[in-house]
Predict the structure.
Amino acid sequence: MTKEQKKSTIQSFDKKKLLQLWDKITKGKATDWDNGSAFEYLILRAFELEKADVQYPYSVYMDGIEIEQIDGYVYIPEFNLPVIIESKDRGKPMNIEPIAKLRNQLLRRPSSAIGTIFSKNGFTTPALLLGQFLAPSTILFWEKKEIDFALKEGFFVKGTIVKYKYAIENGISNFVINADKI
């Protein structure tokens, strides 16, 4: 599928269809999508269903050369919050490389932008430790159980705000949200 076909397909999904796709992704059965793109598009569509402004995956070019591939961008207007999205559908916990990549992307943007990284299979201890020392950049971490919760409850926008406020108040970017903590 092309990027436009993926976007058109995912934008036809309601909450029920997103939950069905999430089930396929978690079982490794989203074979009609290529290499992790189902997860990228699912996350963005979930934000879109919650009325955030969304930019689906895109590339940034300089002098005709691709310098970045961005998994997505979300703008939460009621909080004036721009968020660069990174989504990783890997079979094991995410290590530091995608976090370092996202940090570098944030360093090229206005300081008001934050990053959010979604991982189907969590994060390694070094990745979580790195996340605490990324200042001045802010990168928020989302794991599978939080994605499950946010998909079922329509909580991506509010969850991002909860995580962001916690990061501001406590300096911790891997605050885990669930029904008991909201």
User: Anything to note?
Assistant: The first strand starts at residue 53 and ends at 55. DSSP finds seven helices and seven strands in the chain. The mean pLDDT is 92.
